[in-house]
Amino acid sequence: MDHTAAARPVLRVxxxxxxxxxxTLDEPLxxxxxxxxxxxxRRAYGGEVxxxxxxxxxxxxxxxxxxxxxxxxxxxxxxxxxxxxxxxVTIRRFFGFxxxxxxxxxxxxxxxxxxxxxxxxxxxxxxAEAELLLRIPDCRSLKxxxxxxxxxxxxxxxxx
Length: 160
Fold this sequence. Notes:
Helices cover about 55% and strands about 0% of the residues. By secondary structure, the protein is an all-alpha fold. The termini are far apart. Mean pLDDT is about 85; it is low at about 1-20.
């Protein structure tokens, strides 16, 4: 496949790994994940993309249709909206990347709507609860005064 000039520098890095590629998914997935610095992000995004392709039963991004992604989204309907949102955003990023870099001709995820995620108001302590919390450390010791100061700073600054 003809790759854009933007992808070529990254492809050179992978030249030594090309022998290890198992499927048509491997190269675009490795390149997609290489743009993220955090190992946890790479692991999470890679896991989501791999789960999608296991569910599909093949490893060819070019064969994925919008209908496939709609069925996958429907299959995840029992999950919390925030979880579904995270999964679908990851999938959309992957297919957007694959199209941009010439691995696929069209992006099947373009018209996939994301679930609405409503932000919940954090639960806050009442004045009485905050005062009770501040009475827990034993202020007769240096460690107790330190702990009370830390708790007071957390309460004043709204830290969780």
